[in-house]
Amino acid sequence: MYDLNVVWPSQEYTAPTPAQLENLYNTISMLHSFGYNYLAINFIVPESVKLPQSKAQALNPIPMADLRHRFRGFPKLRLFSRITLVLSDPAKCQSVLKINNTGAFDIVAVQPMTEKSLQLTTANLDIDLISLPMATRWPFFLKHKTVGQALSKGIKFELCYSGLIGGPAGYQSASALGVTGKISRKQFLSNSLQLIRASRSQGLVLSSGAAEPMNVRNHVDILAIFSQLDLRTSNCKEGFMKNPEAVLIKGRLRITSNKQTVMLGGHSADGETRGSIMLEGEASNALKSYKRKREDGEENAKKQNLQ
Amino acid sequence: MHTDYPVEKHLLSRSYTSEAQILQILETRYAGSEAAAQPFLALVPTSSESAPIKEKTETTLNRNEARKPAGARKLNVRRDMRVYIKRTLSNQRAAVSKLRQCQKKGEQISIENLLSSFKIPKYDEYIQLNELWKKYMSELLFLEQKNPDLTLLLPRLSSADYNGCLLTVLESRDMNIIGITGIVLFDAQHLFIVVTPQKKHSDRNISAAEQLGGLRFLRKKGTLFGFSLAVDENEYIDFTIMGSRFELRAVDRTAKKFKSHKVEDIY
Question: Which one of A43, B60, B154, B238 is most buried, counting C-beta atoms within 10 A?
Answer without folding.
Answer: A43
